[in-house]
Amino acid sequence: MIFGRTGPEGAARALYRPRLLLLADSEEATPEADAAAVTAAAAGFLVTVVPWFAIGFREDGIVPLAGHAYEDGSARRPLLPDERLAPDAVAPLTLLDPPALRVASLIGRLHPRAVLGFAELPPPPVDRLPADALRGVIALAPKCARGLGADAKAAARRLGEIAESLASVAAGARQSALDDPRRIVLAIQATAEAAVCGFRAAPGLPFQLDLFAIWLETVRGRLPPPMPLLLPGPAFLCGPSRPAAHPLAAVLPCPSEGHVVVATKARADASFVHLDPALRLASGQTDAAALLRWLGRTIEPGAPSGPEGDRLVEPGVGRTVLVDGLLIADRPDLVDFTALGVGVTPYAEGGYVNVGRPIDGMAGLDRSLHRRMCAERLEAAGCRAGRVVAVIALADSAINLPHVKAAPAGIAVRGFRCVLRVKQLDPVGAFLHSHQHAPAAHEFMLHPVWSSVLGLPPGADRPDDAQAALVEQKVLLGLETYAIRSSLAELVAAALMPPPYVGMAAAVARRLAIVRLYAPRVLELARGRLAVELGRDPLTERPGNLEYALWFADTLGRQLATFRKLRFLHDYHQEGVARWTAGQMHTLGENNLTLLAEFPDLDTGIFLDRPDPAQLDCLFLTRADYDTLDAGFAAFHQRDVAEARDVVQTLAFIALAGDPGGVAEALGRFAAAYQRGLEAAG
Q1: Distance CA 181, CA 170 (A)
Q2: Does 239 fall in a domain?
Q3: Distance (Å, rounded) from C-alpha 682 to C-alpha 156?
Q4: Is residue 119 within 8 Å of residue 188, measured between CB atoms?
Q5: Which residues of 172-187 are buried (b: 16+ CB within 10 A; e: fewer)?
Q6: Which residue, 229, 249, 276, sits at the end of a domain?
Q7: What is the DSSP letter of 78?
């Protein structure tokens, strides 16, 4: 159990309490279950008691069909039917018969981190059984034994012999259906005739609380550290069920304490500069005052929590929140909405990646209007840029910029077919944007669970293993090196041509394995939405990964040809422009393309079909800068094309599990679509 303090004088409170699942043989709450829960709570556990026959299995974990949770060890409440459980330890309240043991083993397979108080183990040899009855606890790897009774030391010695016999298995023999003896901690009651695994000497006999207490103490010392990040699946990476702050919470990763939800407060100084006439609340309201109360809000930590003001923040995002409860009457395909410029989110409070100016959480009002203009022109030409549905002025806020006078601040509300970016196929990368969350991302990637789940080089979960410690150090250095660059495209490039340095290669392998575990859930969402767009059933006629990747490549290639026709550059930061600096990251990349091939961030975009003083003023560019961009358009446009091609390669590699033929086909489709678009434009 991990403790923190509420203040300098506050008492210690638990920040993390491991979750213990007790398997019962009855739906009724019993005095024995209550007593076990009190004992476990005193040892620092959160306890649930579920009948073994009332366990439901899903891809994202186990759910109870009956049972109880003990909130503080004594206050009992019924479990909800769809309440996902994520146990750190599992033990039986009763002796498990074969059907119950099969259910328990399935739980263990879904949760490879959990310490187990049962196992499919062969009986110990008769010559290892004691002459007299003994009780105690054994663990198998590393082996240890603790005895109970008048002569606890002697009992521990004899239990150690039983542990030795169970742990010593001939090569090729089937030791356990759970495969990892490090997870096994067993309560043993042995006589000269047999050894029983459990807290009862025989069916119908009393549950032995003293034996259970010793088991809890042993288990607590063997629990792996909690996962610093949680994913929506598979089961061992999920946390317990929590109320959903937004529909997309079901597919987004989050810190171990849950999704980041901020409280917001309606601003008295807010006013609409632009309001799309088709925008309305999901309730049907079109009243401008109601929309302003819903949208004209900024982050206020002390604001009351509730559905009107609570907003979900995507992982690693510094000044934008997701907004639910909106729709556009003439664009039902735009289903995800964000509000940009609402203040500094918790991901940016302790430091953030360099974005070119101080982190203040604000968005420029003029830039918001520029985004709207770019999106409207691109959409009118057949591109996919979503829609800026509202721009809100904040009269009392201004942005201090080093090269110009203070700029008015505002909020831009945007609607998308799918707000999730290609970069978000990687569940870890976004957390590296945040200085305070980057350590959790590293801990997540170094967690000892990966050595058993993915078969990757182990971390130093065995302190006495010098080789494991050396491997961990090399992987840590590799992860740190990769985090500095941290793009999914570079990860794919490293996978296609593995780096020679062993630590970097191991880091790439681990990062890519985690991406492959997570990405299918996000791709499933994107393919379902694409099915709707294509007029298909999103459940039964969803495009496969290859069809989806080829559609993405075609769609992106066609749009890049339209960029050329319109003389549009995604990023005005180019060589020769006064505000360009060497090594500056180009904005058209995996973080600025959604999974449905939309261009969500257009504040650095510029049209070069004619010099527009208002556009130049908004972007703080001079006429000389415009002339430089105009003269070099052909070369600068090819940079956009190259960056888009890299995104196609990245998405195809992840979606198609690295299949070289599929990746090559997607790249060919991108090039062909681009060429056809150029020819059509004349």
Answers
A1: 14
A2: no
A3: 86
A4: no
A5: eeebbebebbbbbbbb
A6: 229
A7: E
Residue-range definition of the domain harbouring residue 586: 545-681
pLDDT band for 168, please (50, 70, 90 cuts). low
With the CA atoms of 31, 34, 35 and 36 taken in that order, what torsion angle do they form, in degrees rounded to the nearest 10?
120
CA distances in angstroms from 451 to 112, 179, 275, 467, 516, listed in the order given: 11, 13, 53, 14, 16
Kindly state whether residues 275 and 404 are assigned to the same domain: yes
- Last-in-domain residue among 229, 245, 276: 229
Q: How far apart are CA 371 and CA 599, in angstroms?
A: 11
Helix pair 545-566, 502-533: axis angle to 10 deg: 80
Same domain (yes/no): 16, 165 = yes
393 occurs within a structural domain = yes
Q: Give the Cα separation of 576 and 590 in Å (integer).
A: 25
Cα 341–Cα 346–Cα 351 angle in degrees, nearest 5: 90
315 vs 246: CA distance, rounded Å: 13
Q: What angle do CA 164, 167, 170 make, to 5 degrees?
A: 115
435 inside domain: no
In tens, the pLDDT along 520-532 reads 999 999 999 999 9
**Confidence at residue 133, expressed as pLDDT on a 0 to 100 scale:** 76
Q: CA end-to-end span of the chain, whole Å?
A: 68
Decide if 619 contacts 606 (C-beta within 8 A). Answer: yes
**Residue 269: pLDDT over 60:** yes
557 contacts: CB under 8 Å, gap ≥ 6:
644, 648, 669, 670, 671, 672, 673, 674, 675, 676, 677
Q: What total of structural domains would you count in the chain?
A: 3
Which comes out higher in pLDDT, residue 406 or 312? 312
Q: Residue 111 and residue 238: Cα distance in Å, rounded?
A: 9
How far apart CA 241 and CA 244 sit, in angstroms, is: 9
Query: Percent of the chain at pLDDT above 90?
Result: 55
DSSP state letter for 61: E
DSSP 122: P
In this prediction, residue 141 carries a pLDDT of 77
**Is 553 inside a domain boundary?**
yes
- Report whether 640 contacts 650 (CB < 8 A): no
**The whole model's pTM is what?**
0.84
**CA neighbor of 566 nearest in space, from 383, 435, 392:** 383
State whether 120 and 8 are in the same domain: yes
| H-assigned helices in 51-143 | 98-110
Identify any residues that bridge with 76 across adjacent strands, giving them in sequence order: 70
Please name the helix (run of DSSP H) or strand (run of DSSP E) that holds residue 55, with its range, or none: strand 55-58
What would the pLDDT profile of 486-523 be if each residue is shown by its tens digit? 688 888 887 777 766 666 777 777 888 889 999 999 99
The interaxial angle of helices 633-655 and 545-566, nearest 10 deg, is: 170
597 φ, ψ to 5°?
60, 40
Euclidean distance between CA atoms 499 and 505, whole angstroms: 6
Q: What percent of the chain has pLDDT over 70?
A: 86
d(CA 96, CA 53): 11
Do 399 and 273 lie in one domain? The reply is yes
Q: What is the 3-state secondary structure (H, E, C) of 318-356?
A: CCEEEECCEEECCCCCCCEEEEECCCCCCCCCCCECCCC
Task: Report the pLDDT averaged over residues 356-360.
Answer: 73
